[in-house]
Amino acid sequence: MPDLIAQGVEPEQRWRRALPEGQEIVLGRSSGAWGVAWDYKISRRHAVLLWNGSRLEVSRLAEAQNPIFFRGQQVGRFSLRPGEHFIIGRTMFTLVDQQADVSADSPTPLQQQLFSTQYLRQVHFQNPDHRLEVLNRLPEVISGANNDVELFIRLVSMLLAGIQRANAVAVVAIDEDDAEAEETSCRKDAGSASSRPPVRVLHWDQRQLTAAGFRPSRRLIMEAVREGQSLLHIWRGATMDTPQDYTVAEGFDWAFCTPVRGEACRGWGLYVAGRFNAESDGPPALVEIADLREDVKFAELVAAMLAALRQMRLLERRQAVLSQFFSPVVLEVLAAEDPEVVLSPRETEVVVMFCDLRGFSSASERQAGDLLGWLRHVSRALSTITHQIRAAGGVVGDLQGDAAMGFWGWPLPQPDAVLRACRAALAVQTDCQAAAGFQVGIGIAAGPAVAGKIGTGDQMKVTVFGPVVNLAARLENMTRLFRAPILLDEAAAEVVRCEVSPPARLRRLATVRPYGLETPLEVSELLPPVVERPTLSDEHLRTYEAALDAFRAGSWQTALELLHRLPAEDQAKDFLMVYIACHNRRPPPHWDGVISLDEK
Predict the structure, then answer these.
(1) What is the CATH code for 333-503?
(2) Distance of CA 449 to the CA centre of its chain
């Protein structure tokens, strides 16, 4: 794949980019990655480029204000081969077809020097202003790169501008697994070489165009990264013998590699190569190494800043991903401790909330003609649910179509976990109706469970596992049966009742025996404060619970009389009334006050 090189008047006005075959590219001053912002004579959109596999086709756009020069002539449409160039304004664009392959057989250097960080601290720049000016651009270079490819392009251009003695610069990377395999192989057989070179050239460029490609020394890169320090190799000097088969072919007298340390740049290195000035004063070997110390120090500063800024971006990306699932409290724990330890599954007391959007299936069938629009609508509702879970300090444990599950009490204990879940449930009920027009069903249960990173070797997710999860899901299903939006189990309801300032009101709805289970379950409804639902007063709740006590005791006539005192809009009372009617207002034999459910 050929490259197009743009070079302005100043050394730093430069980039080198690979041309994808068969894809049209717009060249201009404001053309994103292919922009030439330094040249005001280039229009915002100046020309269209197309590499057809053998030639680069160039077409000047109608809105372009200035001409394109090719072979000394103004042309509007032309094609060029590798090695040719065209000019717009004060910028030359050159088409090159060169390869960068890591050399496994570079000669043994005539001199080499390893530079420690302490040693480089003592080196002073002779021209610090220029170096600092280039370094000041590094944060902009990194923040302005949307991906690693763009980052490498900008970084190489910046290094060429900052190291004026360099003739070629590359960003290289070691595949650490391959590197370990190679070292093992070399220990077994010092003469053998790995069949798969572990060093890759991520991006490169050179100051002067040549027909030859670029072959960084694999030996140099491996040693520098392994030692964790900058390493300089010298193959030729003003008075030294020349290994003709290597340096003359590429024209390089020296090269050094500076490792980029840190997790975000693991295995990366900055490779710089160039030639000496034959007119240097003094013994060549001494002058040459002394001259290069400043360049090595500059590369070390670039590598250190690059590692720090990349690490910051890595943490920001992790934070953004994790923030979709975890509350800020959990993120603080992950930032302070080893994530593997924090996320490892363990048994703990949790509160689980299941939330389901009502009417999803029937609405999906009606919206079959606009599934993307329907997906956006449902996503807004689910986003409301996950937002409220996280805002209340919970963890989003699962998302499945029209439902979401959240839990509290992990990775840190939360003594008020039940109250947090209740506040989240009430907020979800209100916001889903207001934001997306959805009614919801919510089940909340408290108890022991295993929480953490759970799954298989192929797929993992942070979630919660145990009977309490199944119970919360059962309660969410029961909301349809009771016609009550939010249901709690006994453990969660007891916490709310004992709270001095509960977030909402409670009423016991019934004691049921869930389908497939033997243990009875007292189900309670969570209701908003009376100011938000004044039609159902606290007196009404007391009346219902009195009716429930009579129902359990077998006094069904009394229970019916009390239930009739409740507002007609209170649909939750209908469950007991229908049950009484279906049994002809008489308790069945051996009545124990528990209603057995026939389905989940």
Answers:
(1) 3.30.70.1230
(2) 29
What is the DSSP track for 413-474? --TTHHHHHHHHHHHHHHHHHHHH---EEEEEEEEEEEEEEEE-SS-EEEEEESHHHHHHHH
The domain 3-96: what is its CATH number?
A: 2.60.200.20
Sheet with strand 199-206: strands edge to edge: 111-115, 230-234, 254-260, 268-274, 166-174, 199-206
Give me the pLDDT at residue 494, please: 96
Alpha helices in 461-570 (DSSP H): 467-482, 490-498, 538-553, 556-563
Edge-first strand order for the sheet with 68-70 is 14-18, 3-7, 91-96, 85-88, 68-70, 73-75
86 bridge partner residues: 70, 93
pLDDT in the model for residue 502: 84
DSSP assignment of 341-386 equals HHHS-EEEEEEEEEEEETTHHHHHHHTGGGHHHHHHHHHHHHHHHH
CA 320 → CA 210, 313, 398, distances in Å?
A: 45, 10, 18
528 prior amide bond cis, ω within 30: no
Give the pLDDT band of residue 429 (cuts 50, 70, 90). very high
Taking a C-beta distance cutoff of 8 angstroms, is the pair 106, 57 a contact? no
Strand partners, 522: 511
155 token code pair? 């970084």
Return the closest-CA partner of residue 511 out of 597, 573, 392.
Answer: 597
Half-sphere exposure of 455 (CA within 13 A, CB side): 11
DSSP letter string over 2-14? -EEEEE-SSTTSE
Residue 179: is its pLDDT beyond 60? Answer: no
DSSP string for 184-220 = HHHHH-TT---SS--EEEEEEEESS--SS-B--BHHH
Q: What is the DSSP letter of 485?
A: S
CATH class of 111-318: alpha beta
List every span in the chain annotated with CATH 2.60.200.20.
Answer: 3-96
The per-residue pLDDT for 190 is 41
* Helix ranges restricted to H, 323-343: 328-336, 339-343
| Predicted pLDDT at 64 | 94
Q: Which amino acid is at 546?
A: A
The model's pLDDT over 442-451, given as tens digits with 9 standing for 90+, comes to 999 999 999 9
The whole-angstrom separation of Cα 329 and Cα 322 is 12
Domain with CATH 3.30.70.1230 in the chain: 333-503
- Residue 476: the pLDDT is 96
pLDDT of residue 564: 96
| Residues 298, 162: Cα–Cα separation, whole Å | 8
| Distance of alpha carbon 573 from alpha carbon 569, whole angstroms | 9
**Neighbouring-strand partners of residue 353:** 406, 444
pLDDT per residue as tens digits for the range 63-108 = 999 999 999 999 999 999 999 999 999 999 999 988 777 876 667 8
Scan for tokens 């249901």, then name that residue: 487
Amino acid at 516: G
Tokens 């500063």, residue located = 301
Position 456 confidence tier, pLDDT thresholds 50, 70, 90: confident
Considering only CA atoms, give the Rg of the chain.
Answer: 36
Q: pLDDT tens digit string along 131-167?
A: 888 888 888 777 777 888 888 988 998 899 889 889 9
Arithmetic mean of pLDDT over the chain = 86
Structure tokens at 171: 């960003």
